[in-house]
Every structure is written in C-alpha cells, then in structure tokens.
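Obj: model holo form, ligand = adenosine-5'-diphosphate.
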Amino acid sequence: MKKTTIWLLTIIMVITFTSLLYMQLIYTKNVVELRDEQFTQGVKRSLNAVSRSLELAETKQYLLNDMLQSDMPAMGRNSFTIMIGADDEDDSGLGSMSLLPGKSWRERIRDQYTYKRALLDEVVLSLISQSNSLPIQERADSALVSDMLKTELASNGITLPFEFAVVNRMGAVVYKTHNYNVNLDNDRNTFVQVLFPSDSRARVNYLKVYFPDKRDYLIHSIKVIIPSMILTIILLVMFIYTIIVAFRQKKLTEMKNDFINNMTHEFKTPISSISLAAQMLNDNSVRKSPKMLEHISGVINDETKRLRFQVEKVLQMSMFNNQKATLRLQEVDANSVIQGIINTFKLKVERYGGQLNAELNAEDAIIAVDEMHFTNVIFNLLDNAVKYRDEERPLQLSVSTADVSDSHLQIVIADNGIGIRKDDLKRIFDKFYRVSTGNRHDVKGFGLGLAYVKKMVNEFDGEITAESELGKETKFIIKLPLTKI
Ligand code: ADP
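Output (holo structure tokens):
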C-alpha cells in the first residue's frame, strides 16, 4: 500500500469516527435534556398537586371541625351552625319549614339553597380568618407534606428519594428534612412551590424540594447509549492500532529492501574478486610465478573468508525466524573466551592504528552460554566499534569484565567512535534498524548485528544496554548470570 493511500484512509476514518462520536454525544445530550424536562414537569405537577391537596385538606378539616362543634351545643356555635343542628332534628328549624303551609317544594329547595350558600360563605370567611392566624407548621404538617409529596411524585412516575423544606417569605427555614442542604436552596435543581397561594403576600410560605440522586437518575437514562459509545471507542482504538501496524509494516518492507540491496552488494564484491583471481589463474605467466600464485591464493582465501562471514550473518538472521534457537549451553569462563577473541581481534584494531585494551577483572566469570554464539556476540560488538570508528582520531577500544554482584557478571565494550544519537539509541537493537544519518554510511551492514546480539544475550538470561554520546563514545554493557559452582 502506498503511503499516501494509508494517509488518505486515516483521514477519512478519523473524520468518520469524530462525526460518529459527535452525533452520539448530541443524541445523548438530547436524551438527557428531554428526560430532565420530563422530570421537571413531573415534579412541578406533583408540587402543584401537593399545594392543592393541602388547601383542600385544610378546608375539609375546617368543615369537619365545624360539624363536630355543631354536634356539641355546649361548646357554643354561631347562628348558622345552630341551624344545621336544627336541620337534623325534625321538630324545629329548617326541618319545620317543610311543615309550613303554602310553600311549594320549589320554594323549599330555593330556601335550602340560599341557606347553604350563606352557610358556606360563613365557613369560607372564618376559614380565611382562622387559617391565616395559624402557624404554617400546623397548617402544613411535615409528615403530611412528606406523605403527599411521596404519593404525588409516585403518581407522576418519580420514585427518587427527596429532601424538602418549608421556608417563609424571608427565606428562613420553618422546618426541613434531616438531609436538606440549605446551601442548595438556589440551585437550579431545587424546585419551589408556593404554599396556600391564596394567603396574603406578607404571609406567603414556600415548599422547596430537591432530589439528591437526580444526576444518577439522568445518567441512568443514557445507559443504553454508553455501550454503543464504548464500542465506537474500541473501534477507534483498533483502527489506530491497525494504522500504526500498517506504517510499521511499510517501514519494515523498506528496511527489508535495503537489506537485500546491501546483501547483494556485500556478496558481489568478494565474488567478483574471486572470479578475477580465477581468471588470472588461467593466465600461463601467472601460473609460472610462485609469488603471483601466492598472492592470488591469498586473495581467494581472504575473499572466501569475507564471503563466509557474510553467509554467517545471514544465517544469524535466520535464527530470528526460529521461535526458539537451538542452543548448546555449557559452562564457560567468559574471561578466557574473551581473551581468545581479543588475541585475534587486536591485529585488526592495530591495522587501523587503534588500540585494544582488555581489563578482564572478574574473579568469577563462569557463565552458562553457547560458546559459538557468545563469541559471535562479542565479535559483533568489537566489529561494530571498528566499523563505526571516528576517522579523525585513533580508535581506543576497551573490553572489561567485572563481578557486579554475587550473581552477575558484567561485560563492558567501550569505544571512542562516532557515537549514536539519543533517538537512534532506543532503536539500534531493532531488527534491520540502521542509523540513517552520519558520515559512516558508506559502511555496509544489514542492521541485524545488534538485534542478534540482544536476542542471544536474552537467550542466556542476560540483558544488554547501550550508552552513547554523539561524536564521542559508545558503550555496550552486558549483564549475564553467573553459574554457581
Ligand atoms: P549494522 O552494523 O549492520 O548496520 P547493527 O545492528 O550492528 O547493524 O547496528 C545498528 C546501528 O547501530 C548501526 O547502523 C550503527 O549506526 C549503530 N552502531 C552500532 N554499533 C555502534 C558503535 N560502536 N558506534 C556507533 N554506532 C554504532
């Protein structure tokens, strides 16, 4: 896939996902608002009904009291109630009116109606005057208000727990439920209802109600949307991951192509040298000169060695494909193996005018490794130090071993080469990774050496880290577990 195609796909998908999420958010917001509105309407209806019920209850109570009083003549009654009482008895009052001669039933009913209206007027008047003088906590008893609220809210489909308070015109609390929070008085979620709206303005009281769990209730209403949002987010994460993989894969393909190019180049040079030597051998004059023959055999020898080294590297790469490398672990003395490598490598370093110092100070250096691969590891690191040396100054290469703890051996390989930038340092152990900048990239490589080194060190249960300063030095530190004898 082309890079531009991946980018195009990314942009389209990002736009799609953001729109999807945006639409879901808008929908959620609408649902919450609608639910909030329904809730508010329900509460308002309930509060209205409570206020109305209180008024009705008060009126009923008054009438009841009035009737009770009328049943007890001793307690004193007004003129109308006497008449009500009289109405009950057959021999006096209105009851006796029916006995009056000449009055039609029509007139009798009219009389009765007039009388009852007057009675009601009287009741209403005294109701207004009496109730006005009663304190609000008696007119709207807290238990009664609580019950009424519960019933009315339930009939409007609201079963949430609530807290309420009755406050007077000045805002002072007359009574409140235990958990009513006065600080939330002016909150937009506190509902207010005037109690006994017919009272004079000076004596007006308010019922304030709020629902501590209202938020949860609203959130509950969007529960169905949450899974779809989570799914969208999961989809988005998966998509981002896929794009990252696509980019990585693209990079890996490029690296593999580089690798093939390099490999071809690395193989071509020794092959052409050998074929040139073979052609020379065909020449009679060459064959007659033993000096020339010696030279040609030397060239063939060197070039085959080089070829073998390249093949070895490709083989090292193939190790990555095997899930588990087949290693022959054996106990070896790291000091003596390293010493052996140094002896052969010293010449190479000196040929470049450099110096190779060894400080193999570890007293206990017995480790369990595959000797062939361990040698390759040390060799690769030394070889890199030579490859990436700074041409401006003679190479100073040092190898040291030390016991850092009772259980671990530390091997440090340090050089004064071109160094590695911090960003690259993080990636040099990646497969096919090569530092793309710097003046040394006339040096051919596969970007596999360090990946192989790391894999092997890990196979030996050890770890490797690199420290470097650009233009100054590079240090590789290997820690390997000691085998206890
Ligand atoms: P290769 O040498 O084939 O490129 P390696 O995996 O051995 O691959 O190294 C990866 C990169 O790390 C190299 O391309 C090089 O830039 C950098 N590097 C490795 N060793 C050194 C070193 N001693 N000094 C400076 N740079 C180094």
